[in-house]
Amino acid sequence: MRDFKCPHCGQLSAFELSKCNGCMQPLIFDPENMAMIGAESALECVNRNIIGCNWCAVSTTSYCMSCSLTHVIPATQNPRNVALWKRVEEAKRRLIYDLRRLRVPIAFAGGFRLAFEILSDEHGPVLTGHESGLITLNLAEADDVQREIRRVSFREPYRTLLGHFRHEIGHFYWNALIHEAGFRAPFRLVFGDETENYQAALAYYYARQDWSCDPASHISMYATSHPWEDWAETFAHFLHIVSTLDSLAGLPLSLDARGTHTLNDPYLESDFGALLELWTPLALTINRLNRSLGLADAYPFDISPAVEGKLHLVHMAITAFRNRQGNAHTTPMMC
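RE: above sequence
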């Protein structure tokens, strides 16, 4: 993500800030115009004082565009819950930013609409997942220690809050981008037959003794469990790529004309090959930078030809959907 400018002094301001580090003036992010604005220019989200939300409230409610999608929150009497909920909403705002930049809707005809439940497992187990537009997230995923324990337990090279959101949103968009868009034949050719019993496939995945994964065919081990999970994992990685390239766009780089064009807006780049051509050396570079600091690789994955084909299908499906909506007389509700 690119930095934004303070409307008062012009200093660069990070996406999460609610106060300029230069002139110290309060800031609000306006997702409609994708810009930081002065606090005097818009109403604050009601969650600003509770969890530090720095987005402006929408005209029809006291909540911002992102917070209004959260239908259930953890018990706020527990200070730990509030601290973790703050982290969850920070990650979710980045997700909503992704969706705005991709120009994809959060609601469709027939009432299929995106919503979130942020639940604590203090009163029972909570499974992170998606069902009919409702994304449930276990609050414990915002606890760095608990999340790392889960990451090691499931032998995952990468596990983040933002990664969870980007994965689950892939499930949300499968119906519109694949099922209803005439992409089921190419989907099955690339990802496999999604009519395979989903619950049985997951049960087999968690019960199996062999936890090896062939990186030549899947982006992650979890992607091997079922074609739907393969799609969601791949969708998440597509968002990782375009978002990170968008951050690269703000750096003083020497690029050829094609690279400059791609970085003008990676989210809307029509040439998938151009995206991957920039991503490959960038992923290698950020991994080397992390190693120089004694950290684990930021992107511990290899994009094989098979995985590249899956990412390409995600890109094609998003682009085709956006083009159809642009040519239609009526469009689904946008974020």
